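FAQ: What does the model actually see?

It sees only this:
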Amino acid sequence: MSSRTLALVPARSSLLDYVALTKPRIIGLLAFTGACGILAAAHGHPDPGALAAVIGGGALCAGGANAINCALEGDLDRKMERTRDRPVAAGRISEFAAVSLGITLNLIAAVWLTAAANGLAAALAVSGTLWYVLVYTLWLKRRSSQNIVIGGLAGSFPPLVGWAAATGRVAPTALVLAAIIFLWTPPHFWALATLLRDDYERADVPMLPVIASPEVTARSMLAYAVATAAVSLLPVLWGGLGTVYLTATLLLSGNLLRLTVRFRREPGRPAARALFSYSLIYLAGLFAAVVLDRVLIR
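And it is asked to produce this:
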């Protein structure tokens, strides 16, 4: 290997580490729900610049929030098998550098969204970051089993950002989309936490599957799944969404409830894995149905 090649290896590794701080796999679903928000609000025909800002700016905000989260949770990440090799936990990137990256990405996103869409969209995007960092990471994660319930509200902001970017306001349908994400998050994340229970227990993080029995966890997950299914029907009642969406949500929610009931009866890893995997399909499918319905009823 040449000296030139050797010199490039650290720089390449550092760049990949900075990308890893943003947790790209998590960003994708958030960017998707934001894109669906603006597409639905604009009946499938948003301003291209605003659409790019919602997707790109939303991804930057989410990535920045994740980078700050990595900086603040390095001690926890080092205790968990799944996260101990993250850049801050492993000592490859400093906490200061991670926080600086997170703030910079959010500033870029705020300017971009303000210029391409409007100030409301920018404010909502940055609010999602602040909620994730201040409420979830700093306040609740280490203290309460309701950490992902209240802190999970951060994931509800993208469709609001998208709707605001298209219309300059937040309509009732957009609020329902945000509420769906809020209610969907506990069963989704508690299914994952069931699979990672040993990791969270080792790090002393009070996720519900760690501090409560499988039966209590399963009952709580079912309650939120039922609430998710019920709230998903609200836009149909006032005509915000029509039969295409209604058909999709009945099918998707029916299967979500089926898998949650299965976990209630068999609160083990196989049922948790099936529920977690499907929950991602559920949310993506539901939001895709929102866009399709709004395009068809234009």
